[in-house]
Design a protein that fits this description.
Blueprint (H helix, E strand, L loop, with lengths): L16 H11 L26 H4 L4 H15 L4 E6 L2 E6 L1 H4 L31
Antiparallel strand pairs: 1-2
């Protein structure tokens, strides 16, 4: 995540903290932007290899702990998040397009032309045919 520390929102949850932070911004009519600068062809870690919160979540009572983890987001944001069983395990579902339709509004007091045009890595934007 790339974010400005000047926003009035903070990390506050133990689980799904990134989704919570996005919902804090969106709920307050701010915007988030999703972009992928680099992608990697790698093995999925979901239920295939150790990582993340494995020791906390998946030892004893694994299913119940996953439900609690997923429901924590629903408890804070009942108007946006719900818990459903998908792929045999609990997942939080946020219908972003259903709830948030406000667009990105540029700050009229910021001088966008003053930003340096720097491309240190020689990356270029290309259109990929589907």
């Amino acid at each position: 995540m790339l974010m400005s520390n000047s926003i009035p929102f903070r990390w506050r949850l133990k689980y799904n903290e990134d989704v919570d932070l996005c919902l804090q911004a969106l709920h307050n009519k701010m915007c988030t932007v999703l972009f992928s600068a680099f992608t990697v062809d790698k093995v999925s870690t979901v239920a295939k290899m150790k990582g993340g919160n494995q020791d906390e979540l998946y030892k004893d009572n694994a299913f119940e702990k996953k439900v609690l983890k997923t429901r924590s987001l629903e408890e804070v944001w009942p108007q946006y998040a719900e818990t459903k069983i998908r792929f045999g395990r609990p997942h939080h579902i946020v219908s972003w397009n259903k709830h948030f339709k406000h667009g990105l509004i540029r700050n009229p007091f910021f001088d966008w032309d003053s930003l340096k045009k720097v491309n240190e890595y020689g990356m270029k934007k290309v259109k990929i045919k589907k």
